[in-house]
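[09:14] KT: can someone run the structure on this one? pasting the chain below
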Amino acid sequence: MAQLSSSQHRTLTALAETVLPAGKYLPAGGEKTAARIASFLDDMPDALAMGAGGVLAALDAASFVRNAKRFASLSPHKRLALLEGWRTGDPIRRLMLRSLVAPLKMAHFDDPALYQKLGCVYETAKVKGEAKPAYLRDRVHARLDGDLAIEVDVVVVGTGAGGAVVGRELAEAGLAVAFVEEGTYFDRTDFNGRAFAMQRKLYRRQGATFSIGNTGIPIPLGQTVGGSTTVNSGTCYRTPDRVLARWREQYGLEELAPDKLGSYFERVEDVLGIAPAKRSLLGGNGRVIERGCNALGFKKHGPLRRNAPECDGQGVCCFGCPTDAKRSTNVSYVPLALKAGAELFAGARVNRIIVEGGRAVGVVATTRERHTLTIRAKAVVVACGAIMTPLLLGAQGLGGQSGQLGKNLSIHPAAGALAEFSEQVLPWSGIPQGYSIEELHDEGILFEGAMVPLELTMSATQHIGPELIRLAEGFDHVASFGFMVEDTSRGRVGELRGQPMIYYSLTDQDVAHIKRGMDVLAQVFFAAGAHTVHTAINGFEILRGEADLQRLRRANVKAWDLDLSAYHPLGTARMGRDPATSVVDPDHQVHDTPGLYVVDGAAVPSSLGVNPQVTIMALATRAAEKIAARVA
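[09:31] RB: done, structure tokens below
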């Protein structure tokens, strides 16, 4: 895209100076911060980068209307007053401000000097390159020298929780398998734990995927070998029995009863080494949450089950595990598949599914070098995730018989809170998501640890100016925790200029659950000894005790008052027995296209209320049996 204009750059610099003033030892934001964001925007899709320029222009226009001066010409006091008006104003201005301020915070707080002042590690120790076994050298194709055409039994598009698992199972069953993955195959030598850098490297659109509706919700998606398993927190839950019962009743999926899925869950758990988080690695966050739960008399709380048996608590799970302790599919299922004879083509984007005589018989992909990769197969497995899978199918008119493709999107809307303590918490030390509270799980609210590095934590807060800097410089006394809701809201996925467009509006019931969850989380923090709680609810950003909680309980909170995030898109090609109401059948085959299978979060019939990777993996293990029986 075109560079920011000189006027826009001045406005961006003034914005950085205002949002990020100097603190006791933290330097003020300014030209350096703005330059980093300008570079960031240059790498973004044109529509998003142009949107940022539009927000800067709107800020200048608002300043001129109010003060007869451009924003950069205002005094610091008037700049801050204008921004505070946007921060606490209508939903559109709040969202516009957030879209610019969040990356500014990310860039500014990504500062080794600040980390040193706080006493925490800025960057994980660099791992030396290691000799790779032959199957990881010879069967991973990161680039092609020219066009290539091959034939296999099964081609799998995607290497996340669905694709990697089904590919491994099929390869070990003796079938010829080829993976096609849009992302790069990184290993732990590439992971330095830095949020700003890793987000640009490992996430689709550099982490800037989001939904629009009655509130904007970021939905970060992994784009790398391993998909979102490479950048998740490693939390592992089985599908709740009540959810499986609902699938049986609503979608006729008797095959997915608990007793019939049990062996598939066990197989996944064995591969991933799933076990409760070690108490020694729960850190200050786990300590204060446990104390608060005990003080309130809660019975259902404790260490989470995770897929990281060798974890050492470096706290950077969401940016690639630097020790390979977390058994994401890039270090578990994908290598197992390659060892069994599968081939992996990384950095290749599938743009066509080959259909002949009504049957899927292969794919065509384009590599980064603009070469064409054609893979013919007896079966095609699409496992691009709940956002991208419906776009790939829909672009060719596949899977649309029921009218449900791209619809029924659930995302588990999530919110978090920060709490300030007089004691040192050292939140960066330990597992980021190692502890849970299940007291309200039957109500559809699940609390889980939610610690991320300083720059990402500050970018998620609503604060700007001196209050933001004060909070950042006291980060060693801050705890962080979050929760998600089993949503009744449903959205849809479309496409605009080659980019996913996600539409999702919260129901009143889900808004009430988020309000309830924030109330209970604040109670836990206060019971643990916190003196201040920072929430994600507009008008209630700071709570200092019971009086503020009573005020929150009386408030009529709306969806647009919430700053949320979401990490678990599901359901956009949902499974069901009836072709009139679902996209794939109980064996994962698309109803209207033999030989075409969807094996990822898109096929999951509904919201789960728990982190979905184990559900997707268990379903993928089962799907592989069904596919092998038809292909062999």
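[09:33] KT: thanks! The radius of gyration is 24 Å.
[09:34] RB: yep, looked fine to me
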